[in-house]
Amino acid sequence: MRSHRYPVTAATLAQRLHVSVRSIYRDIETLKMQGVEIEGSAGIGYILQSDYHLPPLMFDAHEVDALILGLHWVMRHTDPQLEAAARNAVAKIHAILPEHLAQQINYPSLMVAPPGNEGSLRFLADIRSAIHQRRKLELVYTDKDGAASSRLVWPIALGFLDAVRMLACWCELRQAFRHFRIDRMQQVTVSEQSCPQSRYKLLKEWKSSQGIAQAKTY
C-alpha cells in the first residue's frame, strides 16, 4: 500500500502477495488494531497514511547473505511451489533493505549450483502436501537392486542431502521407520487416508530412533 498514491483493492494485494483476499482483509484488520492508520473499505480499496512508518526489519550484511543463499538454494533444489515462495520472499526482503544491502541481492557473492540429479526433485510437491495434510502416501519404490515394491507410509519429513532427497516415514509393511530416496520412487499417490498419529509425535520418535537431539534451531 505504501507504494500506491490511490486506494488499492484487496484483490490486487492478494494477487501480488499470492494469498487469499480473505487473508488480506484479516491482516488489514490486525494492522488497524495495532495502530496502523489504514483508510478504506472492502470493494473500494485501502490506502496507508503517508506519515505512518512501520518499524523496519533490520538485517546485517551476514544475515542478508545467509537469507539469500538459503532462498537461492530453495529456488534450485525444490518443487515449483516452493521456488515461487522463495522468489516472493527475496522480493519482500529486497523491498525493506537499504540500498547498500539490497546490492547484495542484485549482485550476490554466494552462488548455488543446480541439482546434479533432477530425479531427486520429482514428487516433492505431492510429498509436502501429504505431510501438511497428514495424509498417508502410497509409494511404488525400486530398491538399489532394482526390485520394485508397493508401500503405504506415514510421511514425517523430507531430508535434503548433498546428492539425494530422502523421505523419512513410518512404513506400515515393515512396522518401523524407513527412509526412501525420492529418485527411486516410480509413483507417488497422496492417499485419502489420514495418518493415525500426529506428525509431531512421529517426528519426535523418529529423531529419538536416529539419535538426533531435540534441539531448537533458533
Q: Report the portion of residues in β strands.
A: 15-25%
CATH topology of the largest domain: SH3 type barrels
**CATH architectural type of the largest domain:** Roll
The average pLDDT value, as a whole number, equals 89
Which stretches are poorly predicted, pLDDT < 50 over at least 5 residues? none
Helix content: 25-40%
Secondary-structure element pattern, one letter each:
HHEEHHHHEEEEEH
Organism: Cronobacter turicensis (strain DSM 18703 / CCUG 55852 / LMG 23827 / z3032)
Keywords: Plasmid
Protein name: YafY family transcriptional regulator
How would you explain this protein's 3D organization?
The protein is α+β, with helices and mostly antiparallel strands and 218 residues long. The protein has 3 domains: 10-48, no CATH class; 61-106, no CATH class; 118-210, Roll (SH3 type barrels), CATH 2.30.30. The protein is 39% helix and 24% strand. It contains 7 helices and 7 strands; from the N terminus they run ααββααααβββββα. The chain has helices spanning 10-17, 21-33, 61-77, 80-96, 99-106, 124-133, 199-210, and strands at residues 38-41, 45-48, 135-142, 148-160, 165-171, 176-181, 185-194. Strand 4 and strand 5 (165-171) form a beta hairpin. The longest helix is centred in the N-terminal third of the chain and has 17 residues, at 61-77. The radius of gyration is 22 Å and the shape is globular. The chain starts with 9 loop residues before the first helix and ends in an 8-residue tail after the last helix. The model has no long low-confidence stretch (mean pLDDT 89).
